[in-house]
Amino acid sequence: MGIQERKKRERERRRQQIMVAAKRVFSEKGLNKATMEDIAKEAELSPGTLYLYFKNKDELFSSLSLRILQYLNIRLEHIISSERELKEGERITALKEAMYDVYEFDPVMLINMFHLQSSETLKNLSPQLLKNIRDLSQSSIRATAKLFTDGIENGTFVDEHPIALAGIAWALFSGVVLWEESKRIIDEEKNYLKETLDVAFEIFERGIRRRPPPDEPSGGE
Amino acid sequence: MGIQERKKRERERRRQQIMVAAKRVFSEKGLNKATMEDIAKEAELSPGTLYLYFKNKDELFSSLSLRILQYLNIRLEHIISSERELKEGERITALKEAMYDVYEFDPVMLINMFHLQSSETLKNLSPQLLKNIRDLSQSSIRATAKLFTDGIENGTFVDEHPIALAGIAWALFSGVVLWEESKRIIDEEKNYLKETLDVAFEIFERGIRRRPPPDEPSGGE
Amino acid sequence: MGIQERKKRERERRRQQIMVAAKRVFSEKGLNKATMEDIAKEAELSPGTLYLYFKNKDELFSSLSLRILQYLNIRLEHIISSERELKEGERITALKEAMYDVYEFDPVMLINMFHLQSSETLKNLSPQLLKNIRDLSQSSIRATAKLFTDGIENGTFVDEHPIALAGIAWALFSGVVLWEESKRIIDEEKNYLKETLDVAFEIFERGIRRRPPPDEPSGGE
Amino acid sequence: MGIQERKKRERERRRQQIMVAAKRVFSEKGLNKATMEDIAKEAELSPGTLYLYFKNKDELFSSLSLRILQYLNIRLEHIISSERELKEGERITALKEAMYDVYEFDPVMLINMFHLQSSETLKNLSPQLLKNIRDLSQSSIRATAKLFTDGIENGTFVDEHPIALAGIAWALFSGVVLWEESKRIIDEEKNYLKETLDVAFEIFERGIRRRPPPDEPSGGE
DNA sequence: TATGAATGAGGCTTCATTCAT
DNA sequence: AATGAATGAAGCCTCATTCAT
Lengths: 221, 221, 221, 221
Description:
- The structure is a homotetramer of 221-residue chains.
- With 221 residues, chain A is mainly alpha-helical.
- Chain A has two domains: 1-54, Orthogonal Bundle (Arc Repressor Mutant, subunit A), CATH 1.10.10; 64-208, Tetracycline Repressor, domain 2.
- Chain A has ten helices and no strands.
- Residues 216-221 of chain A have low confidence and may be disordered.
- At the C-D interface, helix 1, helix 8, helix 9 and helix 10 of C face helix 1, helix 7, helix 8, helix 9 and helix 10 of D.
């Protein structure tokens, strides 16, 4: 039915509207200090309406995590699918940029996502949502690992287990985010995430890239 | 007065008793789901007693973070002071091990510590505690940077700004912790922090270590 | 919008409902022994609802004081505005009656109002409410003083600073209220506020009224 | 027994020490904001010790009220007993000064005393203390009334019921205290209790003093 | 007698959630 | 579907009071 379809789409639009508002509020105040009323106000809706679209606060929050994971997945899949067009050296750069965009997409939610871990929070989630989150997370890991698998196979990278490399790349990213964040707190200065991340990835790449054959002098070092 | 001394020690013991209980409860439930009553019960004390030793919930939580920072500092200072006895290659290894021990010391609090950052939480802290946290954090950064300064000066490391290297090392560490943690959640499996961390640091070191002089062919490879 | 208007009125009605309940509970138990739950029960509402209409306990209490001040002001303004219609001797009587009505309006809150003064309590008030209270208080003083200014100007009263007279009139009133109240406590008898107040004001008036002209020999002067 | 006697005196001294401290703390913070620990600190004792001398907080507070009443009584009795030495006009002045001294003795406690009235508070008092308070209050009223009885009897005062006059005198006093206090709050200025009280009592006396016989011109005035 | 650490009841307040409109 | 007033459970924290030393 066209009318059914339209309703469904309308419903989805409303969900997005709420999530956009929630993202802003969670980013500003954190999971706990943000109230459902804050979010309702930001979405220009009433508190009661939120519950027509999300079972409860935890599920609304988790949906946002899911959204980041989805975005991450899209970006990673895009890199994989255009792998052929990318020169060897560009792949890790593409990965890094994808990660940075994910961060830009929602810096605070990214950090908060790590706190989804409380088993108490997980208990409140609907099984469907929980499954989604797990699937997307695994998919992201696999996609990232694929990049390294290829690199290893075609001899660009020193042989390492690709899953481990994927993890380290991601760890590097999340770690830099946290590090910059905590430096900012301590120093009350602005942070320089992008630069730090560039250096970190340069080092990482240097560490895993197979050195050019000896007869081609490694370039005055 | 011996009696004064004993009282002071008794008081410190009680503080520790509460912190041990708090650590357990925070680890299990997280900062927000853990209630003061939970902690009191775990410590086999009444809620009111907690407030004789900690100004409020945030301060109790922060004190635990402080403990980790203190431990981290001790470990780092130890490395610095015994630098001469360590061979070149051992320094980063020592750093990594220190970080790993810090993780072992209190895995969950380490993760939670990254969330101390909410300015709302910081407002509730006593100035003294806040200063301690900041001082220890800065001291840790400086100590870590020192390791890299030395490495750069004696030509072991490719020239990079030592603070940046220190940051990346720490970022690598915290990132791996988080990564492993989230993998554990997703896979419901045990985590392999130590191995992952070993690989990560090996790559890191490879990336920043100056290659041996050309007359000693860097390994036909 | 008619609908907006109705909602506003509904809201005001609810506020009044709460204030009526609060007044009863505060009167019976005093500011400190009265709990928000007591008031909620008396108003047949839940505790949370009170906070939809009043910022906190102090503000609810102060709002009641404000109500008395408002009533006092209305009465005083009425006297001022109908001054011409009042014979000279009737003005102080009108003042006294106004004061007595204020007492009748809410005896216990009148007494409690004197305790609004704790600066700790004042700190919790919203700036708007604080301003209202101050403005109304000042307005009351000025209105009362006006009565005496006029009396002095037309030669009815012995020349005294009108503000001082206003203060003394009001002091007489509040003092009699307290005195009667404490007598009631001590004697466990009913109090006789009205009679005592009549006598007090008669004496007061006698003390400030200029004696009739000498040709009617009330006594040399 | 001399030793029993000494112990009793020692005990009384300790009681006084506590009351002095309590008076200071109650004056500064009011009945509710003052904590037993505050008082203990001020008295340089431990909280537990307070309970060796006073049944509970209410009783400690009430004892202070009792102390003011005792002081008031002493002053009034002194006036009564030296009545003969006082000229007619000096009696009310002496009364006023006594009242002022009572105020000076402990301004805030005087105001707080009016709040002893909460029946909840009274319930907590020991029967003995309650009786003392009642007796002293009645005694004060009678003593004050005596001054007016005499004034009326010897023709100085216009005939009024002396109890009423006593009440009004006292009301005037307490009213002025409150009035000045509330003016101070509103205007954030210093108060001028003594001056206001002088004027009030002058008016009061003028109002009740029998005018001199007409043949003796009241003094050109 | 004095201590002061410990208690634990209870107050104020918040806020996720519901439900009558 | 949307509202938003109302709910009431639950959390943090205070402080009068007790009791083992």
